[in-house]
Specification:
Layout (H helix, E strand, L loop, with lengths): L4 H12 L9 H5 L4 H18 L3 H8 L9 H8 L6 H27 L7 H25 L1
Helix pairs in contact: 1-3, 3-4, 5-6
Length: 146
């Protein structure tokens, strides 16, 4: 990555140029990408590229340009799909839980590798287990009501 940093940054900056016509890129058309997905991917790429070469401040500046975790398409969809009995809403919420559980596992892994002196890894794992138990209890109660 370090070897190709300059080239990667040039490509990401090109992708971030709003005047580009992304429909001319066959790979994007093939997967139905829209400008936002290209833009967010390029911002993510810039953050990771700067992180890789040790420019943490620049990496943080780029990361700050991304939406917060609670402002994603998936999170908002699960809230705006109105019908409580909607199959579409249930599928969206289930998908969110799956994706966020993977993200939570990854974050916990990163946390365990964190060298910050005040890290309470056993406490965090205990809180995670309590949260999972709470979710399991809720699911069990819902099954009994059905």
């Amino acid at each position: 990555m370090i070897k190709y940093t300059e080239e990667a940054i040039k490509v990401f900056k090109w992708l971030l140029n709003e005047n580009n016509n992304y429909t001319t890129l066959p790979i994007l058309a093939k997967y139905g990408c829209c400008y936002e997905s290209v833009r967010y991917g390029a911002i993510q790429g810039m953050a990771y590229t700067y992180y890789t070469i040790g420019e943490i401040e620049k990496a943080m500046e780029w990361a700050a340009k991304l939406p917060s975790i609670d402002c994603t398409e998936q999170m908002v969809l699960s809230r705006v799909l109105k019908d409580e009995k909607s199959e579409q809403r249930a599928k969206q919420i289930k998908w969110n839980i799956f994706q966020y559980s993977i993200a939570l596992k990854d974050e916990l892994n990163f946390f365990c590798k964190c060298k910050y002196y005040d890290s309470d890894i056993p406490g965090e794992i205990k809180r995670l287990k309590e949260a999972v138990a709470e979710i399991e209890e809720y699911a069990k109660n819902e099954e009994q009501r059905s």
